[in-house]
Design goal:
PmbA/TldD fold; nine-stranded mixed beta sheet
C-alpha cells in the first residue's frame, strides 16, 4: 500500500526521475489508485464485489526495449533507480516531447462514495422488483451496476507532472421475457464519467420502456437473408468503427504485420462521406481521459477523412517508429498490466442526411439498431457482428420489428458502400475492450445513423 498524499507522490517521483537524464534514456513513472464496486442481481444470484483503493506504481525506461518495475509497497519506492538498467547516449531511442503539466479532477453531482453500499444494494433490488413485477412474462431481470474511481499520477524526465481523477459509473438492465416457448430480451446500457446521479436519473418511465422493449421482442419476426441495403443505428456503426475497423488501426498490430490495413495509409478505405475518429478528449464519456498512461495529452485522432485512411492509432513507441503523433492511446488496465495501443471513444462523425430521408429512399431493406456482439479480424478484414434487434424497411417506411440480425462480409466493402450518414447528434455507448482476452479498459463507440447500399445479413 502506498499511503502518501498526491503532492508527496509527485515530489518523490520527481526525485526518482532526476536519476535518469533524458539525453541518456527515456524514463517515466506512474501511480495508479483504483477503487471498484460491482453489484449484479438476477433471479439466480446476487453478487457484490468491492475493491477499495488498490494502489501501485510502475516505472520504466527504454533501452532496446521497455524495462519495467512495478511495486505496491511504499518502502520499495527508493529502490526503483537500482532496479532499472542505465545507459548513456540512448535518449534518441524514442521521440522526445515537450513536458507539460495538468491537475484535473472530475467532480460529480452525487459522489458515489458518500452513498452507503447498503443503499446501493437496496436501489438495485428495487429496480429488480419493479421490473419483475411489471408483467408476469418477465422471468428474469438482469441488472449490473459498476462504479470506479481512478487516480493516475504521471512524471517523466521530459518535465511532465500530470494528475487526473476519473470517476466512472455504469448501469446495465436486461429484462428477459418468456411467453409459451418463446424467450427473448432487449437491453439498456448507460455509462459515463459521472457520479451516482446517472442512476438516480433512471425513472420509472425509462424502466417501463426498457421492459416493453423486451416484451415486444417476443413477437418480433426473423430477419431476411441476403444482400440488402441497410441502415446501422449508432450502436451498430460504433461496433463497425471499433471492432471491425478500429482494431486493424492499432499500430502495434501494424508493426507486427498483423493488420489488413498496413498498406492502406493514405489510400481510400471508405466512402467519400465517411469520417471516423478516435477521441479520448470528449468530455464526460466513459472512455475519456486527460492524458494516457504514457503522459500523452488526449487529442482527437481523425482516422478516416473523406474516405481516406489518414492515421493509425498509436502509443509512444509505435508513433516514434512510424514517425507519427500519438493522441493518447497508450493505456494500461492497472499499474500491474502492460501498456498497449488501445482505442478510447471511437465513432463515425455525423453527416448531413435526415434519418427519415435515409429510410424513405429504401424500398426493401433492414435497419439494425442494437449492437450486441462483434468479433475482430485484424488479419483478414472480415466482419462478423450482430444486432439484437432491427426493423424491416418496406416502400420507404420502417415496419416490422426483427429479431437478432448478423452482419458479415468485408468491412472495407461495407465502408465503401456507405451512401448516407445522418446529422443526428453524436451518440456513444459505454463498454470495455480487452487486448485479446485480458487487459480490459473502458471505451465507448457509436456515431449516428449510417446507410450502406448493400450488405450481407442473415438471422442471428
Amino acid at each position: 500500500m502506498i499511503d502518501k498524499s498526491d503532492d508527496e507522490i509527485i515530489s518523490i517521483f520527481e526525485e526518482i526521475s532526476n536519476n535518469f537524464k533524458r539525453s541518456n534514456q527515456y524514463f517515466d513513472i506512474l501511480y495508479d489508485a483504483t477503487s471498484i464496486l460491482r453489484i449484479t442481481k438476477s433471479r439466480s444470484e446476487e453478487s457484490i464485489s468491492v475493491n477499495s483503493k488498490k494502489t501501485g506504481v510502475v516505472a520504466r525506461t527504454l533501452l532496446d526495449s521497455w524495462h519495467e518495475v512495478a511495486i505496491q509497497d511504499e518502502i520499495d519506492l527508493k529502490n526503483i533507480p537500482k532496479k532499472l538498467p542505465a545507459r548513456k547516449n540512448n535518449g534518441d531511442a524514442i521521440t522526445e516531447y515537450d513536458g507539460w503539466k495538468i491537475d484535473k479532477e472530475i467532480k460529480t453531482k452525487v459522489d458515489p462514495s458518500k452513498i452507503p453500499i447498503n443503499d446501493k444494494i437496496k436501489k438495485i433490488r428495487e429496480l429488480f422488483d419493479y421490473i419483475k413485477n411489471f408483467d408476469k412474462r418477465i422471468i428474469n431481470p438482469i441488472i449490473g451496476y459498476g462504479e470506479g474511481l481512478i487516480t493516475r499520477i504521471f512524471v517523466n524526465n521530459e518535465g511532465c507532472q500530470l494528475r487526473q481523477v476519473l470517476p466512472r459509473i455504469r448501469l446495465f438492465i436486461q429484462p428477459v421475457a418468456k411467453e409459451g416457448s418463446k424467450i427473448d430480451f432487449d437491453y439498456f446500457s448507460i455509462g459515463a464519467e459521472q457520479g451516482y446521479e446517472l442512476v438516480d436519473e433512471v425513472s420509472n418511465k425509462n424502466l417501463d420502456q426498457i421492459i416493453q422493449n423486451s416484451l415486444d421482442m417476443l413477437t418480433a419476426d426473423s430477419p431476411p437473408s441476403g444482400k440488402l441495403p441497410i441502415i446501422l443505428g449508432p450502436d451498430m456503426s460504433g461496433l463497425i468503427a471499433h471492432e471491425s475497423f478500429g482494431h486493424g488501426l492499432e499500430a502495434d498490430q501494424v508493426l507486427r504485420d498483423r493488420s489488413y490495413l498496413k498498406e492502406r495509409l493514405g489510400k481510400k478505405v471508405a466512402s467519400e462521406i465517411c469520417v471516423i475518429c478516435d477521441a479520448p478528449n470528449i468530455e464526460g464519456q466513459y472512455g475519456s481521459h486527460f492524458f494516457d498512461d504514457e503522459g500523452i495529452k488526449a487529442g482527437k485522432n481523425i482516422l478516416v477523412k473523406n474516405g481516406i485512411l489518414k492515421n493509425f492509432i498509436h502509443n509512444r513507441r509505435t508513433a516514434s517508429i512510424l514517425n507519427s503523433v500519438p493522441k493518447g492511446n497508450g493505456r494500461r488496465e492497472t499499474f500491474a498490466h502492460p501498456v498497449f495501443v488501445r482505442m478510447t471513444n471511437t465513432y463515425f462523425e455525423p453527416g448531413d442526411y435526415k434519418i427519415e430521408e435515409m429510410i424513405s429512399e429504401i424500398q426493401h431493406g433492414v435497419m439494425l439498431i442494437r449492437g450486441y456482439f462483434g468479433m475482430e479480424d485484424v488479419l483478414g478484414g472480415g466482419m462478423q457482428i450482430s444486432s439484437k434487434k432491427g426493423y424491416l424497411i418496406e416502400n420507404g417506411e420502417k415496419t416490422k420489428l426483427l429479431k437478432t440480425i448478423t452482419l458479415s462480409g468485408s468491412v472495407l466493402q461495407l465502408l465503401q458502400n456507405i451512401d448516407a450518414v445522418s446529422d443526428d447528434e453524436l451518440m456513444l455507448r459505454p463498454g470495455t475492450c480487452g487486448k485479446g482476452e485480458e487487459d480490459f479498459v473502458p471505451v465507448t463507440s457509436g456515431g449516428s445513423y449510417v446507410r450502406t447500399k448493400s450488405a450481407l445479413i442473415s438471422p442471428g
